[in-house]
């Protein structure tokens, strides 16, 4: 960029909007994540793909029904449902808040996430003045909390987006964990199983997690294999971007 280095300004905020997704998550135990959306400048309508997740199937069913029947939803189609997760195609009538962001030159740089009536946004701006103007405009109309404001330098900003696939690979590894595997692995880390020397034995870890001595080792190994497999795949992607990948001396 002429006249100086490019620095993106990233803003993370939580906002409470009078929109269908926010109302549904305020009333139901469901989390709605929007990985894809498209705003029509002609109609003002917003086309969304929504990922819904809940602690159980009954909560998911209630959340899906509420979203389907919510005021402001002009189109709803359930695309996939498995266990306590579902995907739906949704069209909202209007999205004034996002129009405000776009009008100030901002961009949405990560999926929206609605939980407990609050929607988390990750926004990007070319400069902090545009970010400040957007926040000021939103604050006059909506309830919001700024979680983080981060200037990203030339080296950091491209990395955030260039390694999206690697980040998704790691997340996929986490999502493949069963509830028991995730609980056992989290407990092992929190109570020092991986410390040197170990503060937790397999037997005490199994007792703490309510898993038998026979099953605890297998459960932990399955969890480790899933996460390590995802991590190795992600590292392979990172290695291809390194200048000296595959050769050179390490000092």
Protein architecture, described:
The structure is a single chain. With 251 residues, the protein is of the alpha+beta class. It folds into two domains: 144 residues, no CATH class; 77 residues, Arc Repressor Mutant, subunit A (Orthogonal Bundle), CATH 1.10.10. Helix content is 43%, strand content 27%. Strands 1, 2, 3, 4, 5, 6, 7, 8 and 9 form a nine-stranded antiparallel β-sheet that branches. The radius of gyration is 22 Å and the shape is globular. The mean pLDDT is 86. It comes from Haloferax sulfurifontis. This is HTH bat-type domain-containing protein. It holds the Pfam family HVO_2525_N. InterPro entries: HTH_bacterioopsin, HVO_2525_N. Keywords: Transcription, Transcription regulation.
Provide the gyration radius in Å: 22 Å
**Major beta-sheet overview:** 9 strands, antiparallel
What's the overall average pLDDT, rounded?
86
Total tally of structural domains: 2
Structural class: alpha+beta
| Large-scale geometry | globular
State the end-to-end CA separation.
35 Å
Helix fraction by DSSP (H/I, runs of at least 4):
40-55%
**Unreliable stretches covering 5 or more consecutive residues:** none
Number of strands: 9
Strand content: 25-35%
H-E order: EHEEHEEHEEEHEHHHHH
Helix run count: 9
